[in-house]
Predict the structure.
Amino acid sequence: MSRALAKANANVALAKYWGKRDERLNLPYTGSISVTLDGLETHASVRPLDSGGDRIILSGVEAEPREAARISRFLDLTRAAGRQHTGAEVEISSNFPVAAGIASSASTFAALAVAAAAAYELRLSEHELSILARRGSGSACRSLFAGFAEWFVGQAPDGSDSYAAQLATPEHWQLGVVVAVTDPRPKAVGSREGMAQAVSRSPLFSAWVDTHKADLDDIRDGVRERDLARIGHAAEHNCLKMHAVSLAAQPPLIYWRPATLAVIERVRQLREEGVDAYFTIDAGPQVKVICPIAQRAAVAETLGAVSGVQRVLLSAPGPAPQLLEAS
Ligand code: PMV
């Protein structure tokens, strides 16, 4: 056992995961496709201790008991696989707002899976690492891959066929991505609770599942063909359906802020002005916009000027996780 440090990038889903068919194993009702985001990174280090429980430090401070328990449960999976019992000191930090709908859980659990596997000396394939990361946070299974990734829905009750794989490399398509941050504070309702509400309390959930495959097919083909209009229209449609499911739940779940809608309107206006830009929104108020890389700076400047937008982050298809240290 040794200390290991890894980094992984966040991702944004173009065809989304929204609803678990198995809450314990994080098994989805639908497949999903994402772009790994360059520059939006989480570092995670795991140092096994000689005795005692886990000590979890998030962004430099001791984690709240609930967060600490979630990370300890995740480490337990690695420890069980490696027949290890000792606790660990874990430090996690991200260079972007966490728990605010920019998929910090994806980069966190992807980085943690890589670091924990190295620290507890588990030799896992990419595919096994993807399954491990999925147990921490579903979307994390996609952050194991550079560029574009697809998470297969799978059918097996044990989740052995529900993992992600690379769909296209970053070199295949340097798409521009702009993140418009409208509220950097942690969101009130996390994705676990949001999904549970969508599955059991929204009359639109079955329609979401039934119509999902068409969006997935469009986005997969659009990525392969580098067809921005095709993935853009399908991603907007998919995102609006996901939010419609939660808006229609009882009680309703509204992730948007006024500035979220203002950015949506500005993006639609940009298209009328001839700029190929399309929006998507995860479980939070931030808006992610895809556009040609040559227009990314201009799109960022336009969105940065929308009332209520606090900052903009520039991104593009990014790298796979990296093990930075293993001593
Ligand atoms: O991986 P989780 O449990 O944080 O869920 C992520 C859910 C969405 O970001 C809204 C969609 C997705 O596919 O990433």
